[in-house]
Amino acid sequence: MTKSAMIEPITGLRQTPKVDPALVAVNSDGFKFRDIFVRLPHGTIADDLKEPEMWKHIQNGPRALRKFDRLMLVAYDESWIAEAIVAHADLSTVILAKPRITAFPDRVEKLFGDGTYQVKWSGSGYVVVRLRDEAVMTNEFPNAALAERALVAMYPRRA
Q: What does the alpha-carbon distance between residue 93 and residue 55 come to, in Å, rounded to a whole number?
C-alpha cells in the first residue's frame, strides 16, 4: 500500500450522523438532572450512540447535555428507542452510560397504496412515496387520511 493510499479517506465508509439541536426537547428540568427527548437523525443505528462526536452540534447551544441527564432517544422511523444517562459531557462530546435499547414492533396500521404510490410513515409524519424508485412525492402530513387524500389528488380528474 502506498503512503498516499493510507492518507486518502476510503469512500463508502459510513459517517455517523450528527444530532440536530431542533430535534432535542427538554421534557423536565430538575435541580440535579433533566429528562430530555431526542429524535435521532435519519439513518442512525444503535451502534452510533457510542460515538461521542454525534452530539457536537448540541453541545454548542442552549440545550447542551450535562452529566446525569436522562435521555429518551427515539430512532427517526420509530423502530427502536434507547434510554441512557449522560456519563460525561463537555463542549464537543457526550458519552452515554450503557444505553438500554428497546425494539418496537413494525407499524400495525395498513397504509393505503395503489401499486404505483404508497402512503408511508417517515418518522415525523406520513408521506406519499413512488414505489418504483422510493421517491418522496409529498410533504409530511400529520395523519394517514391526509396523506391518502394527497395520493388520490396526484391523479388527473375529469372536468
A: 6
